[in-house]
Amino acid sequence: IPTYDPGEIEPRWQQRWDKDGLYNSDIDTSKPKHYALTMLPYPSGDLHIGHWYAMTPADARARFMRMRGFNVLFPMGFDAFGLPAENAAIKKNIHPKTWTYANIERMRLQLKSMGGMFDWRREAISADPKYYKWSQWFFTQLYKHGLAYRKHSPVDWCPNCNTTLAREQVWGDDRHCERCGTPVIKKDLNQWFFKITNYAEELLDFSTIDWPERVKTLQTNWIGKSSGASVTFRTEQGDPLEVFTTRPDTLWGVTFMVLAPEHPLVAKLTSATQKSQVDAYLAETIRQSDIQREAADKEKTGVFTGGYAINPVNGEKIPVWIADYVLMTYGTGAIMAVPAHDQRDFEFARKFNLPIRVVIQPAGEAVIDPDTMEAAVPAKGSMVNSGELTGTPENKAMEKIIAFLEAKKAGHATTNYRIRDWLISRQRYWGAPIPMVFCDKCGVVPVPDDQLPVLLPDDVEWKPTGESPLKLHPTWKKTTCPQCGGPAERETDTMDTFMCSSWYHLRYLSPNYDKGPFDPAEYNYWAPVDVYTGGIEHATMHLIYTRFFQKALRDMGIAKGPEPMLTLRNQGIVLGEDSEKMSKSRGNVVAPDDLVKAYGADSVRAYLMFFARWDLGAPWNKTGIDGTVRWLRRVWTIMQEPSAGKSPSVEAEKNLRRRLHQTLRSVTRDFENFEFNTIVSGLMELLNDMQKFRQENPGPSKAWDEAVDVYLRMLAPVAPHISEEIWSRLGKPYSIHTQKWPTVDEQAAADETITLVIQVNGKVRDRLIMPVNVSEADAKAAALANEAVQRALDGRQPKQVIYVPGRLVNVVG
Ligand code: ANZ
Ligand code: ZN
């Protein structure tokens, strides 16, 4: 047997598989389909160990599913638009397109070196015009269906990246840009939005998908549903002042109201004497973010407007304040303050000496004194000090107050969601141009289908003006109106790249199709995605956006079904050896290429599956990989050693088969459950037993041949090259990857048993089948519980129980 040389074996097989189209997946209605998807990489330049950690097990599982008889689609592509390309362009003076496509070339080769079963014919790159034509088409479809709209609105703006940022792209207390760390500022711009809020309720329904609890919780919190009431107060000037409250049953406890500083009624409510104070406060708060303003530990600030509103339940005159802890972006931007029962209102009341009135009394507790209370009282109990509703028990309070408000025409039950519409506009160059045209006569006009794509011009210049290069381009934005033919201007904003990645799984189905975003025949066969794998960090943005997208496509009649991906699983993170996040600046980055060069892709794949629980991740451990390398070398020699010498006994073969089929059973189950580390450790242990068997029984053996065959099939998804090479050297039919996954022989896998004779006072009463390694206590207990024994004892207590290991139990009594 030659020595194991992955450097020779691996590229050779990769070329062969490629040439034979081994991983082409085409429609085949004779087989059940399985669409396995792993999150596509951003072409940042290098595939890092995290990509391998995420993708190797996904690939192994796709291979496993294929061997189990599914027609598997496992595609790959690149999320190719976005800021880093543009930043690189500015820094290094390379065109974003050049930078991006050079990186894609490089990363594609790296991905190929992994030996993945990607069907490269289906590669999709979101920056290709043939791709973004359809991103643009979706945009116009959403617009035509009322799901895209334009609105003048304040946005978070990164002065360094010169772009708007989504809520999720702003981080930390200092509100810095996710990409570059620069503190963000507010800017007012005309922006495009998608109406994701239309789907807030439906997005809370996870009943048709198998997704991790953590993701479902993160999405549920992100959507942030609360049930309560809308209550309309009236200002002294007679304007309706609507508030959202989750506790309308505390309406008698309202002692002041608070408006967000941006609230439209602030100017009108502000009295002449309070004006200068109000103006000063506005100037100071407007810069802050919602996140800063909402922080619970923040010292409360605010000012009195000098205006009043009338409480609709009792006609009381309530002072109206402004304070930054009330957000304009939630509810109605105004609150009724109930300091006795809401902690934020309580702190505000104490700070500004405002009255506190208890209106909910917890059962069995002493009456609370508002003058001495030190925190808001949880509003659990019956209503007190509440006019005609006083005495209403907790379980009736909501129902009664809603009826009361409706009768007075002062309010009604309502639901509020925290989720905001999806801001799509980016004032950047390297993205899909938003396909809209502005005409003086016709207004906003979508670019007609036959004029798509709106191509991104290559000849742009970067000037540090803060403006998008598209805006500065001398001719690009000048166009004619698709409706009247008159002169018009193009939208110069490009789309958030999360738009492109919301539907990439559909583009994979037919990346060259030009009559629609996807070929309906491919869609009808492959959709939806059966298993999606990727990082938990996408729980709220990408994974909500893509679900919204699917629902919108369904409602527009473009796609079918409520969900894009049926099963989702998240991998953990590979940290640096120092347990820190891997990063160039820390110098703790592990480069997969170096590992592949040193050990071969199969060893790297197997080690990545072995060294941590996939869903948890772990710090990288350099020394561990040696064990994996040694294991594969042993596989190489043991599996290929020719048989010669003494053949095994029937007993020895039986034992080998038991171990083999037990391992097959657990490996199969582990693949199903995404438990990849125990697959590799199971195979390692089985190899030890096989080696021992072979040392004792080196001669020809059917059980041994079966073990080699089954072992290689189990190994194939994990280490596709070495298993193919050994398989072919043993003269088995090409390719191992098109072989069937072996079936567990349950009889062979069953634990070995013995038959115990059960006696009472020396007389045989029954026989029991027990595991071969049954303990004395278990054997005795089984005998005593036996019905025949009970009958023979006839109520007598056993005096003694004798156990003869492996043979009998005698009950004396
Ligand atoms: C009176 C009240 C009494 C409230 C009480 C709570 C407890 P969630 O659950 O997050 O939906 N609120 C409403 N709009 C607000 C805004 N724009 N900015 C800040 N706070 C706002 O919170 C809803 C509650 O948060 C509402 O119910 C309101 O205070 C406050 F014992 O009204 B509540
Ligand atoms: Zn026009």
Automatic annotation (TrEMBL):
- Asked whether the keyword Ion transport is assigned, the reply is no
Gene Ontology biological process terms from the UniProt entry: leucyl-tRNA aminoacylation
Motif ('KMSKS' region) positions are 581-585
* UniProt domain Aminoacyl-tRNA synthetase class Ia: residue ranges: 418-609
Task: Note the superkingdom of the native organism.
Answer: Bacteria
Concerning InterPro entries, the annotation shows: aa-tRNA-synth_Ia, Leu-tRNA-ligase, Leu_tRNA-synth_edit, M/V/L/I-tRNA-synth_anticd-bd, Rossmann-like_a/b/a_fold, tRNAsynth_Ia_anticodon-bd, Val/Leu/Ile-tRNA-synth_edit
The answer to keyword Metal-binding applying to this record is no
Q: Where is this motif: 'HIGH' region?
A: 41-51
| Catalytic activity line of the entry | tRNA(Leu) + L-leucine + ATP = L-leucyl-tRNA(Leu) + AMP + diphosphate
Subcellular location(s) per record = Cytoplasm
One Gene Ontology cellular component annotation held by this UniProt entry: cytosol
Pfam families linked: Anticodon_1, tRNA-synt_1, tRNA-synt_1_2
Give its E.C. classification number.
6.1.1.4
Q: Where does ATP bind?
A: 584
Domain Methionyl/Valyl/Leucyl/Isoleucyl-tRNA synthetase anticodon-binding residue range list: 654-773
What are the protein's GO molecular function terms?
aminoacyl-tRNA deacylase activity; ATP binding; leucine-tRNA ligase activity
Residue ranges of the Leucyl-tRNA synthetase editing domain? 221-405
- Broad class of where this protein is predominantly found: cytoplasm
**Keywords for this entry?**
Aminoacyl-tRNA synthetase, ATP-binding, Cytoplasm, Ligase, Nucleotide-binding, Protein biosynthesis
| Family according to the record | Belongs to the class-I aminoacyl-tRNA synthetase family.
Q: What is this protein called?
A: Leucine--tRNA ligase
Instruction: Give the organism, scientific name.
Output: Leptolinea tardivitalis
Q: Which gene encodes it?
A: leuS
